[in-house]
């Protein structure tokens, strides 16, 4: 690889680290919420199964998607999925927040095995989110001389694999630090899902410029102009999420602090 290619791949990897970090922290908090009604020993086991499931489903998703990624229908479904989960998150956070909190208080906790099943289903959704976002970022990178794996160029596969591993490492060792960051800058969580939506748009453009569909020119879908537009908007979302985010008030931190404590007690995060 030449220097320009290494810099482009390195930049995408840096974006993936930030995105995976925020998503992994959000995923960890969701799982903490799902298991915190259990007794401490059962909670620890449920979180262990959840981490194991995250590992299996994330790498399973990677290998499945690597074989299907160049089918335009898969690209289109992936684009709609990424855009849909981002919209769902934003609606849940800003429109349904008070209703969902009331519903959560009234809901009785499930038994151990039902909780494990719910955690594993959440793992599947998280795995698909993370791998699809990584694939959408990777597939428009320049090709390399590395051997193809599935339908992916070896360099693209390496970037997606790195993103998957980074997400797992963060869930296991560094989620607590990202939770603290999200507590300080809550707008970063919203920015992360706006990035997911924008990555969905990128995958949609890639699908629409597929030779079998050709609604958009392939030259545009893979060209410099679209890359500049994409990275400029992505940078604006990230900078806006950081600088426009207001500090969270102490009362607003209570729920996330409780969830973080559940994770620490269960040894999912390092003490």
Topology overview:
Elements: H1 3-35, H2 40-68, H3 72-94, H4 97-106, H5 112-138, H6 154-184, H7 187-208, H8 218-221, H9 224-243, H10 254-265
Helix pairs in contact: 1-5, 1-6, 1-7, 1-10, 2-5, 2-6, 3-5, 3-7, 5-6, 5-7, 7-9
Tally of distinct domains: 1
Q: What is the averaged pLDDT score?
A: 77
Low-confidence parts: none
The tally of helices reads 10
Order of helices and strands: HHHHHHHHHH
| SS-derived structural category | mainly alpha
Radius of gyration: 19 Å
The helical percent reads over 70%
Distance between the termini: 40 Å
Global shape: globular
Strand tally is 0
Please report which band the strand proportion falls in: under 5%, 5-15%, 15-25%, 25-35%, 35-45% or over 45%. Answer: under 5%
Main β-sheet description? none
Summarize the structure in words.
Belongs to the TerC family. It is found in: Membrane. The protein is mainly alpha-helical. It has one domain. Helices cover 78% and strands 0% of the residues. The chain is built from ten helices and no strands. It has helices spanning 3-35, 40-68, 72-94, 97-106, 112-138, 154-184, 187-208, 218-221, 224-243, 254-265. Helix 1 packs antiparallel against helix 5. The radius of gyration is 19 Å and the shape is globular. The chain starts with a helix and ends in a 6-residue tail after the last helix. 37% of the residues are buried. The model has no long low-confidence stretch (mean pLDDT 77).
């Amino acid at each position: 690889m030449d220097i320009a290619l290494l810099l482009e791949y390195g930049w995408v990897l840096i974006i993936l680290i930030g995105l995976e970090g925020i998503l992994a922290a959000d995923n960890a908090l969701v799982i903490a919420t799902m298991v915190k009604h259990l007794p401490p020993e059962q909670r620890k086991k449920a979180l262990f199964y959840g981490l194991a499931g995250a590992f299996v489903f994330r790498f399973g998703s990677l290998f499945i998607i690597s074989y299907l990624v160049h089918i335009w229908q898969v690209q289109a479904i992936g684009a709609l999925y990424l855009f849909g989960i981002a919209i769902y998150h934003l609606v849940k956070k800003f429109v349904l927040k008070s209703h969902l909190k009331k519903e959560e208080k009234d809901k009785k906790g499930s038994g151990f095995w039902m909780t494990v099943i719910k955690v594993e289903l959440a793992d599947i959704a998280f795995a698909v989110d993370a791998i699809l976002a990584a694939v959408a970022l990777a597939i428009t990178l320049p090709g390399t001389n590395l051997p193809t794996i599935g339908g992916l160029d070896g360099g693209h596969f390496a970037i997606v694999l790195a993103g998957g591993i980074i997400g797992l490492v963060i869930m296991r060792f560094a989620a607590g630090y990202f939770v603290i960051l999200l507590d300080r800058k809550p707008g970063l969580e919203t920015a992360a899902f706006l990035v997911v939506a924008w990555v969905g748009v990128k995958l949609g453009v890639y699908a629409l410029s597929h030779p079998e569909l050709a609604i958009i020119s392939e030259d545009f879908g893979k060209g410099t102009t679209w890359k500049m537009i994409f990275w400029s908007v992505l940078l604006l979302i990230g900078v806006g999420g950081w600088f426009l985010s207001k500090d969270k008030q102490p009362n607003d931190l209570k729920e996330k602090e409780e969830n973080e404590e559940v994770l620490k007690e269960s040894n999912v995060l390092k003490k």
